[in-house]
Amino acid sequence: MRYSLTLSLPLLIIATSTSCTQEQDELLARGTYLMEGILACGNCHTPKSADAVPIADMRFAGAFVIEEPGVKAYASNITMDDETGIGTWSDAEIIRGIRDGIRPDGTLIGPPMPSPFYRNISDNDMRAIVAYMRNVDPVSNIVPASEYGIPLPDAWGPPVGEVPDVSRDDPLAYSTYFTVALGHCTECHTPMVEGMHDFTRTNEGGRVFENIFDLGFTVISANVSPHPELGIGTWTDEEIKRAITQGISRDGREHLPAMAYPYYATITDEDLDAIIVYLRSLPPMPAD
Hints:
Blueprint: H1 2-35, H2 42-45, E1 65-68, E2 71-74, H3 91-99, H4 115-118, H5 123-133, E3 147-148, H6 171-182, H7 185-189, E4 192-193, E5 196-197, E6 208-209, E7 219-220, H8 237-246, H9 261-264, H10 269-281
Antiparallel strand pairs: 1-2, 2-3, 4-5, 6-7
């Protein structure tokens, strides 16, 4: 019996190691799908050239500027650089930074970081995001501190506890999770009043982004509610999907390169369908 146990111990270690490796691979695959797809973190955190192309050797190194009344915000360096990025942050600190909007030193991460939406990202998806971020190459890039002339809250809400996965068996719950929590689409498509979202007008559009990405043009977010005239209520599912993934409007116009079209082009057909479910569920805005 003792001889048999001695033989089985290495097999147990190998099996455990294989299981851990498989789990990490699955987390990284999920994190890659999210970060290079619906989350599209690089759309703000990766600097762009003058023709709106991401600068390859500056992935996630920050410096995108957004200016609104009372706000001059810089996208931070979220590479694994110890000095100018988040290389010294623990996994728990990264998760807290994303979901709670709190840095390790206790300071609040202000807008446009969509922590109020990210609060609902599941624990498993957060672990996948961290697995991806740990594989981001460090880039030394000092980013200025954001400046706020508007009052900010002490926190975006109570500390986030456990957040379970959202089942695809509930189509509306999953579509809301994918589009709002992960995609944070309402972050840009909902009007702001004194630095805060006016959720009585969710997805009504009209938010102004001046000189976005420092590309020399101004973008006004579209009404993506089902309003038949001012929104996308009469658009077909395929027209909506084309606009999301290719930046082409219903009439064939090319949209300006502000939305994360190259990222959204990687979203699976199943998850694009989920986005449609969410958009179709909204009330038309403006309300009559």
